[in-house]
Amino acid sequence: MKAHSDEFTIEKMGQVLKVSRCGYYEYLKRVSSKRALENAGLVEEIKEIYKSSRGTYGSPRVQAELQRRGKSCSRKRVAKLMKQEKIQAKMRKKWKVTTQPSKKVELVAPNYLEQNFIVEAPGKVWVSDITYVATQEGWLYVAVVIDLFSRKVVGLAMGDRLETSLVVKALKQALYKSDKNQDLMHHSDRGSQYTSKEFKEVAARHGIQLSMSGKGRCYDNAVAESFFHTLKTEETHLCNYRIREEAKMSIFEYIEVFYNRKRLHSTLGYNSPVEFEVAWENKLQAVI
Predict the structure, then answer these.
(1) What Rg value do the Cα atoms of the chain yield, rounded?
(2) What is d(CA 146, CA 125) in angstroms, rounded to the nearest whole number?
(3) Contact 260, 274 (CB under 8 A)
(4) SS3 assignment, position 96
(5) Within 85-221, where are the H helices?
(6) 10-residue averages of pLDDT along the chain (288 residues)
(7) Whole-number Å distance between alpha carbons of 108 and 102
(8) Which of 71, 126, 191, 213 lies in disulfide reach of 66, CB 3.0 to 4.6 Å?
(9) Within 10 A of 106 (CB to CB), how many other CB atoms are there?
(10) Which residues pair with residue 211 across a beta bridge?
């Protein structure tokens, strides 16, 4: 009756369907009240999810987390409730590329990755990049190594100087933490740190195939750049660090406690990197 109220009068439809006008409006009140109670419960859960995400989740991730909790509701409904409660994800800001490309073309490795960001197993392809974070003490430079399979940060190094040792340290940490290093490819941009003799020697000792982005092709290292965009939007841009050590603690905690273990990734079917790897390991064991 409600759906056809623009075409027919309530009285006429009531006569045909043998429903009284009073009964129809009582029904609408009951339905409205039930919906209101459901929405109130959803709003509380939405607020809890939003808070636990550090204010980073928009309606897609909030809906995904609600579904993980057994709550069935549309993304449109979640978006509407979040808008009513003035809940929105943190806005993204622009940021700049840090590394300077090597001027010696002969030192640059070919682009073997070619934007193939889908990997079938962990420890097969790593991507790396460097960025900087402002503190009152000066810049803090951050280098990461990310496993393309799960988008997990497997290597992290931070320092007050933009040196080759920074990316070497991040790579060595990733190698130390991972036991799946056979036939490994490492992709980066053409920064002088990655084309350095020291970095190439470390990669060669571990049998790592180096791959580097094409000239002027910013999307070739899109996963690493996207991670830094997320890090800055959800953490560092919101902080006013007094000293570098404060920034280091903040970044480490964000990556190890939240990003790797809790943050839902749309590319991983709204699982965290750790959850995605565990599910893969369980599936592999089931086959064996």
Answers:
(1) 25
(2) 8
(3) yes
(4) coil
(5) 164-177, 197-205
(6) 61 67 66 72 87 85 88 88 85 52 68 93 95 96 97 97 96 88 90 94 95 86 94 93 97 97 93 95 84
(7) 8
(8) 71
(9) 6
(10) 187
